[in-house]
Amino acid sequence: MFLGSGRRAETRVSRVTWLAFAHSLTSLFCLVAEIRAQLLEQLKCLDQQSEARVQLLQDLQDFFRKKSEIEMDYSKNLEKLAERFMAKTRSAKDHLQFKKDQNILSPVNCWYLLLNQVRRESKDHTTLSDIYLNNIIPRFAQVSDDSVRLFKKSKEIGGQLHEDLMKVLNELYTVMKTYHMYNADCISAEGKLKEAEKQEEKQIGRSVKQDDRMLGRSPDPAANIRFEEKHQRRSSVRKIEKMKEKVKKTMEATLQTIQDMVTVEDFDVADCFQYTNSTESVKSTLSETFMSKPSIAKRRANQQETEQFYFTKLKEYFEGRNLITKLQAKHDLLQKTLGESTNYF
Fold first, then answer.
1. For the segment 164-188, what is each residue's pLDDT rounded down to a tens digit?
2. Which of 29, 111, 255, 281 has its C-alpha lying 20 to 30 A from 162's C-alpha?
């Protein structure tokens, strides 16, 4: 009779345990699938941002290239206009009078000033066209190359972090599956043990059970070992936190250096619009601008080296933060399992 009731109780416990086990694994499986979908969506959004950025920069290059052509055509038309009316004015009788009385205000002098102003405007538009073609467009191309390279490195770091996260989730799924299996066996064994204890109590009384309880109160010999392990774990967490803080400061300083390198070398084309220069001197001034300096290759190399250093520190920062999170989670779990107070740590 007692054996029959014990089997029925064991069957009920096993059924409840199995349902809880199946529900937990199903929930975890759905959660892992959702996280995987979110991670893939993040990488997809990063690719879309990269493509949109590159396309925008390409459109800007096409825009300024077309604008450069328009400025050049406009400059040529202004030059033709000035030359045509200048030739017409030279054939007039007032031209000789203009040479004699250049310092006297007169309609002829105003006319010559207007034509000279048109010529200067033509040179300005030529200079502006050259700036668009030789300065702004190459700078947009440089920014496009930098964007592609930085997006690629960001995607590599993000992909590696996603792989590490999925690895942890898969390990968690395996551990939970194993845990539920052992937990089910443990619950089943506890049910059998309780049933056996009831049978034993009815046969030989409660003396044996009391002796077992007294033996169970003996001090734990592994307490000192656990304390030492906790102390070592605490020291490791503190060292990693200090390392993470140092890496973070270095990373911020490197990022500021990259920003300074990009912003400090902007174009200054004010000298290109000096009216005292001839067309040849203006073109020679343009040939010495930022994009055509010999040191551009050296600056680009320094920029890429600084970017590589920044991404290395960024990767170390993320890896250190993940390690701290894992150690803290293990510590909290051990602390909860051992039943110790949080103030003790």
1. 888 887 887 787 778 777 777 777 7
2. 255
| Domain spans in the chain, listed from the N-terminal domain onward | 1-218, 220-345
pTM: 0.56
Topology (CATH) of 1-218 = Helix Hairpins (1.10.287)
